[in-house]
Specification:
6 strands; alpha/beta; globular
């Protein structure tokens, strides 16, 4: 019989063990996105960008043809990273861009977490390529979108079959925090949730305002 210990599973993400790659959150791709409401997509993308900022996660922001065709990256994604260089590409597959790969290698993390537009092109491409080269890859499914629900779901299935791990934007934030007794990031985590995490965020706001409640203590 296995011996249980109070330690996290090895597949759980921690702030220091991965690089977050946010790909092509740009108007031209958003215009044709039909698998998720654009407002919800922007909220979820904001949630993961702010989570990465709170936990100082190594982050790469990349665009495609930003000035020539696709437009600037969503401001809510760039705002948490003032002054950060955006790596602009010509390739649909981020993994075929030399500057992006140079940055991945410079950071040197064995795990990658990806999100962006569109799921079936700009996420499948680098996910498949990174897995092929030995990286452990996660993708944030509700911070990705595609031209139809069918296109998004087939892309998600394909990535899972390749070995990628799906997760959600709120799951990403809470997995990085994982223990409410971690006081150094507690306020920033709950603050991010209150602003971007929908009904859960409203619940946090209500509990704090009405009862002064805090999730770090035992009942």
């Amino acid at each position: 019989m296995p011996n249980a210990t109070a330690t996290p599973g090895k597949t759980l993400l921690s702030p220091a063990d991965h690089t977050l790659i946010l790909i092509d959150f740009q108007p031209q791709m958003a215009f044709a996105t039909r698998s998720i409401d654009i407002g919800m997509l922007r909220t979820n993308a904001s949630l993961i960008a702010n989570a990465a900022k709170v936990f100082d996660v190594s982050t790469i922001l990349t665009t495609v043809a930003a000035k020539a065709f696709s437009g600037p990256m969503f401001e809510e994604i760039t705002a948490p990273f003032p002054g950060k260089t955006l790596l602009d590409r010509t390739s649909m597959n981020t993994w075929e861009d030399a500057a992006v790969i140079e940055e991945v290698n410079r950071i040197g993390k064995p795990r990658l977490v990806m999100a962006g537009l569109w799921t079936s092109v700009c996420i499948v491409g680098p996910v498949a390529s990174a897995i092929d080269q030995g990286f452990e890859v996660y993708f944030i499914a509700d911070a990705c979108g595609d031209v139809s629900p069918e296109a998004h779901e087939r892309a998600v299935q394909r990535m899972i079959q390749l070995g990628a791990v799906p997760m959600t934007s709120l799951q990403y934030l809470l997995e990085l925090q994982r223990d409410w007794a971690r006081t150094e990031t507690y306020d920033a985590t709950t603050g991010t949730a209150k602003k971007f995490a929908g009904g859960y965020g409203l619940g946090v706001t209500y509990a704090k305002a009405m009862f002064g409640a805090q999730e770090g203590g035992h009942g």
